[in-house]
Amino acid sequence: MPSYVITGASRGLGFEFVRQLSQNPENVVIGLVRNRAAADSKVQAQGLKNVHIVEVDYTDLPSLKKAAEKVKDLTGGGLDYLINNAAQVSYISSHKSLVDLYAILVLELKILSRDSNMEPNNSDDDFSTMEKDLRDSFDINVIGVIKTINAFLPLIKKGTVKKVITISSGMADLDLINDLEVDVSAPYTISKGAVNIAMAKYNAVFKKEGILFLSISPGVVATERASEVSEEEKQAFGALAAKFATYAPDFKRPLTPEESVKAVLSVVHKASVQAGDRWWLWLPIDKVNITMESVKVSVKLLPFKNVQEAIIAARKDWSDTIDFNTTHHTRDEISAMVPEENGLRHVKPSFYSTRLSHWLELIASTQGVSAWHVIEIPRYLAKELASLYLTWCSGRGLGDDTREELKSMFPKTTTTGVKIDDIFQGDKWFLRVDYCSAKDSEAGHSVVESLDDLIDRLYTSMRAIRAIADILEEDPHEKPKVFLIPFNTAMDRSRECRVFCPPHKNRVSAISQYRWTEPFTFRDAEPAQQEAQDIYSAACVIHSQILEHAERKTDVETRKSIQDDGFTFDVLKPASGDIQLVEINPFGAMSGCGSCLFQWIRDAKLLYGLKEQVELRFAV
């Protein structure tokens, strides 16, 4: 069970981390707070079940070590994720520059002393308030983080995931400060810059042990603190927003805590030492879900006539296209473009890791499906269906006697004991086997409403029969499975996309429309760009969910395969509602997975993640 410790967990982003992580009942979520009673009340009011609150003083190392001992008892000895979120945001300097702050302090001294002849100077008395503001920021934002890491590092070393995250700020980006002349909130910003360096130093020491240290900016977020600002602070923020508009024209509003935390967790779950992820990422405001990768994202709209010409040329030659949707390349072809190094090996990937059995729970959750049925086919029946496929290919149909015999051989219940007769009482189902759908059956993707429909889909589908035969060959004892999933009326293949996730990169490298032989649903270029970016944003979130699901639910072979071999997954962008996961497929030029609007060899460096960019392709 993944374990998380979040500091500063009583409000704002910290509590949102707790809330989102606790939605998975298998997570162990521990919030560190200054006031346990208040935090406990908030947790209870929200009905969060798997959350533990521990009181702590972030400036006191013994207090932090005592908290670590409590966490050790809760997790059984290790810790997967430490999220340093607690921070000091000064009310004194948040909207002031260093010069403004000093002038205000001098003015306060004048008022207190009633000395109208007093001039600004650099005396210790004049500087004391500013010094305290700086020290308070450093005590929590730098020294407090280092003490927290010191206390919890022994648990991180014993954890499975081994990730230490510090929530930083884009305000600590030197280029941003200079380019936009961001002069406010100096003590906070200086401390965040310092903690970024601390994280880099930790990463330099521990990356060889497989521990990732990562600073990440959550963007500009409308937290409770943001709602408590004065009019003067609001004016200062307005001026900053106006400056930022020149840097990010699409910026329209701050993110909600839910949006920000969702994006941050997506990055956190995907990042790894093995993938060479950096110790510092900052997520630009408003586009946080789109620019969460440290790579450039581009959208390429291809004229469909170019694709159509390639299809026509291939048909004339009675061949497959060489420019699009290529498969089954040789090892020599791909090795010439992508050398075998850093653990990468070019082999024909196994289909095992893409089995629906591994992923159905996740797929169903993205589609809003809560119930489905699994039927285990006896091996003798599976062999009979395979022989009937050959009969059907010869042009002979299924006789009534043979059909009745097949129905009598069919299991009477599902794997959970539901009677087969009860399944077909007016409900509409979509049929799949473990490795694929039966879309090439005589009836195609049509609805399954009876046992007769189910049998027809199976024995007239070369894909399904081949997949069943693979199961029979892989394991002499395993029974092939048939899955009945509620029929999704929104499943429009023209709105599907294929997402490419290369080996050892832990990120998305490219996205193409799935049905590449037709124009995509975009009507013109301008909305297409934004819609494509939305697809990429959602694909990154689903990619993160796939990795998390693999960590929690799948076996060692599957987890190793998706890391070492990579994978692709197909998503559906319905006309309305959230993007849905459809299925997971193998990755690679030597696989049978079609590259859609890409070409496995020509686009190899892009698809295999060797370019610092992500490209989305659609034909319009």
TrEMBL record:
Q: Sorted alphabetically, which InterPro entries does this protein's record hold?
A: NAD(P)-bd_dom_sf, SDR_enzymes, SDR_fam
Output the superkingdom of the source species. Answer: Eukaryota
Gene Ontology MF, one = oxidoreductase activity, acting on the CH-OH group of donors, NAD or NADP as acceptor
Q: Where is the signal peptide?
A: none
Annotated protein name in UniProt: Cell division cycle protein 123
Q: Which organism is it from?
A: Byssochlamys spectabilis (strain No. 5 / NBRC 109023)
